[in-house]
Amino acid sequence: MSYQTLQFDLSDGVATLTLNRPDKLNSFNAEMHEEMRDAMKTVERNDEIRCLLLTGAGRAFCAGQDLGDRDVSPDAEPPDLGDSLERNYNPLIRRITGLEKPVVCAVNGVAAGAGANLALACDIVLAAQSATFIQSFSRIGLVPDSGGSWLLPRLVGRARALAITLLAEKVSAQQAADWGMIWKALGDEELMPQAIKLSQQLARQPTRGLGYLKRCMQLSSENDLDRQLDVERDLQRLAGRTDDYREGVAAFLQKREPRFTGK
């Protein structure tokens, strides 16, 4: 699949989507948003894809919005940033979090602004030791977007979330891991081999069941225990009807490795 601002590769059930504007630190422009929409449709609809791996080319993961893509000169019409979120960033974050397939993010360098929050929206986030996360919005008078104001307090707590966003200080990969913002910080040379290995492992698992698991976890943040017990009941009912559940039980009883198909 050929794009101008992305690289898209499919192997062993894993779709690797690489943000590919390295000269601009993989910041988003209109073309990248359009190509991301198309790529995500493919990931959603292609049953051969059982895991998504998201990373960046060059020395950055993603620097957020390409500020050079907007005219903020004194005589220009003020931009409608809410419209930009509504058309571009919000649908992307909803697609990432709502994808009923596992999403792994390999943060290979700086992740700033919307780029940081795109990474944090993924299911399992690995980062190179040299990578950094920065909520850069306050430096230009903006509020955290792309889910940042929702994700950060839940990941690191209110006090840290406020300090991270108000001060716009860099958070190292190791600090992010220590705070529970991401899953693991790895040596730079280990990042992609470990991310690929993990993605391939997930791609061999019961995909539909993992999708139900994601949905269950997401709903839990909005439910009390009583409602969440009902969610677990309903999703377990669906999971118990899958081919992979039957295969998993049969493999356990027969003391062999399961051969899941994602159905």
Key phrases:
2-enoyl-CoA Hydratase, Chain A, domain 1; alpha/beta; 263 residues; four-stranded mixed sheet; Lyase 2-enoyl-coa Hydratase, Chain  A, domain 2; 10 helices; 16% strand; six-stranded mixed sheet
Question: Would you summarize the structure shown here?
Answer:
Helix content is 46%, strand content 16%. With 263 residues, the chain is α/β, with parallel strands linked by helices. It starts with 5 loop residues before the first strand and ends in a 10-residue tail after the last helix.
Q: Tell me which CATH architecture of the largest domain applies here.
A: Alpha-Beta Complex
Low-pLDDT residue intervals, each spanning 5 or more residues: none
The figure for the number of domains is 2
The largest sheet, given as strand count, sense and whether it forms a barrel, is: 6 strands, mixed
CATH secondary-structure class of the largest domain: Alpha Beta
- What is the mean pLDDT? 95
CATH superfamily annotation of the largest domain:
2-enoyl-CoA Hydratase, Chain A, domain 1
Gyration radius (Cα, Å) is 19 Å
- Helical percentage: 40-55%
Q: Report the count of strand segments.
A: 10
